[in-house]
């Protein structure tokens, strides 16, 4: 150390040791981010599966709504035919009315299911986009850190 100054002189070995520590620290950071990137990729795949399942549920909901519409038409036709048959088919009119009521209830539930699924799809799509963006940011960070490691190593091995 220079007696006239507060500056500490750093030996080549100290500088090399510092660079080695920094290099190892950055290398560990890269490994940690790569582990996180693997988790992001898994989440991406999981969201893809959730999206496919949501599409399948939408199809089921559409099928239920179609069946409910058909049941309503059948119950109306049954009520008309029962009315034509007169008093002998009066019980069948009650059954037809109940079938219609239940079909309307199924139709309502199908609409509710469609709304819930739509909200889920919006949330899934937003999360999917966030994960994709996060993955891209991680890959950029990894590239930057790997470049830093390369530069540190080049300083160590001129």
In brief:
With 158 residues, the chain is mainly α. Helix content is 89%, strand content 0%.
How would you describe this structure to a colleague?
The chain is mainly alpha-helical and 158 residues long. It has a single domain, classed as Helix Hairpins. The protein is 89% helix and 0% strand. The protein contains two helices and no strands. It has helices at residues 12-85, 90-156. Helix 1 (12-85) packs antiparallel against helix 2. It starts with 11 loop residues before the first helix and ends with a helix.
Which characteristics define this entry?
0% strand, Helix Hairpins, single chain, mainly alpha, 2 helices, 158 residues
Biggest beta sheet summary:
none
Distance between the termini: 27 Å
Helix content: over 70%
- In CATH, the architecture is Orthogonal Bundle
Mean pLDDT: 85
Can you tell me the overall shape?
rod-shaped
Oligomer: single chain
Unreliable stretches (pLDDT < 50, length at least 5) are none
Helix count, DSSP H or I runs of 4 or more residues: 2
**Number of separate domains:** 1
Instruction: From the alpha carbons, calculate the radius of gyration and give it in angstroms.
Output: 34 Å
């Amino acid at each position: 150390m220079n007696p006239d100054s507060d500056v500490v002189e750093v030996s080549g070995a100290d500088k090399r040791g510092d660079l080695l520590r920094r290099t190892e620290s950055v290398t560990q950071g890269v490994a940690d981010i790569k582990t996180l990137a693997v988790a992001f990729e898994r989440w991406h795949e999981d969201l893809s599966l959730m999206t496919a399942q949501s599409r399948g549920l939408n199809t089921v909901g559409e099928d239920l709504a179609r069946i409910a519409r058909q049941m309503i038409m059948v119950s109306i036709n049954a009520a008309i035919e029962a009315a034509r048959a007169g008093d002998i088919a009066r019980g069948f009119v009650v059954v037809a009315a109940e079938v219609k009521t239940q079909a309307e209830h199924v139709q309502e539930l199908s609409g509710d299911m469609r709304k819930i699924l739509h909200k889920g799809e919006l949330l899934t799509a937003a999360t999917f986009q966030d994960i994709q963006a996060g993955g891209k940011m991680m890959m950029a960070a990894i590239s930057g850190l790997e470049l830093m490691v390369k530069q540190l190593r080049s300083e160590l091995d001129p």
